[in-house]
Amino acid sequence: MQYQTTLAEEVTYTGIGLHSGLNVTIVLQPAAADTGIVFVRADLAGRPSVTAFAANVTNTMRATTLENGAAKVFTIEHLMAAFSGMGVDNCLVTMTAPEPPVADGSALTFVRLIQQAGIIELTAKRQILKVAAEQTVRVADKFITILPYDGLRITFTSINAHPLLGVQFGDYEITPELFCREIAPARTIGFMNEVAALQAQGLARGGSLENVVVYDEKDVLTPLRFSDELVRHKILDVVGDMALAGCVQGHIIAVKSGHALNTVLAKQVLAAHKRESGGILWMSNKEAE
To answer: Would you please indicate which residues are annotated as catalytic (active-site) residues?
Structure first.
């Protein structure tokens, strides 16, 4: 039997947002059982909050955005991946801006914060969503599917036209130990020829060689941590986005998937679970009203 967890103590980190370019301080705080991961906007009147739940996803352009009334947060996938990969079920994430810090572009800083805070077990049972039947999302040449499986396994194929990238393949059984070692350090990938267009859309304002693995037309400008860092980061994103469905068990197989397909799959998995059991995971009392 598995029990829910939370942090043992409060921990704080300050940095810059990848897309907003805003300075932000986040405080990760212990939370009671069945709270889930809740983002609190301390910079807004009334400190509105939004639960990290698939139904609250409102945008997936280059990042995953959650909204509930006045509470809006985006680029939450790396922090969510750290919570999921480390097995943290409940936490209050208080933020002074709408976007968590990008840190080094990976989930490693958040993993270290969680390790610094410590993880404690609560008395409530962990709700595990075991996938009972295949669920698939397909758009053109991209797809993501989940199959019944005892655990969480992710198999991802990335295909990119850049001469240094091409086809990358990753297949991992996600455990806290493996996640920390093989997935969490993988950083966001960016391309020089996209910078102007992204910034014109209000994106990538905080991006730099310090927090993004940058490629120009022929070369990589940032030393790599892994030869296949791109596909590992894609798997990191899947872990973070699927955490919006709760503690999911299944074998996820994806080709060229991104936040849009990932979060649609999370919603499909929850919808199937609701039909089968009449239950919804990780929904706050306020959202259930």
So the answer is: 259
